[in-house]
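This part of the workshop introduces the protein records we will be handling. The structure tokens are whole numbers drawn from a learned vocabulary of backbone shapes. The record below serves as our worked example for the rest of this section.

===
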Amino acid sequence: MAVYTKINSKDVSLISKKFKLKDKIKFYGIKQGIENTNYLLKILKKKYILTIFEKRVQKKDLPFFMKLMDKLYYNKIKCPKPLKAKDGKYLIKIKKKTSMYCNICRWQR
């Protein structure tokens, strides 16, 4: 099982506020994977992934990878597009852990 960090409706509401999302978010833990916790979030017909980075990830490396994913996405490389929160940053804290939120709709072109 790859859902190490459990989130609840209150956590999802916090994410919604940080990313200016609409209400009525459904969320499901993604069991596949070995290193990080991932959730699928559905808002109307759009799908997003929330990744919560667990212990083995070097926090100092994360900003580089967020910028890289963003650049790859805009250069038409098929990959998720990391989204920025209202404060303009890619990374947020959930359950005292660093997290990222990305759009997967256009990834599935």
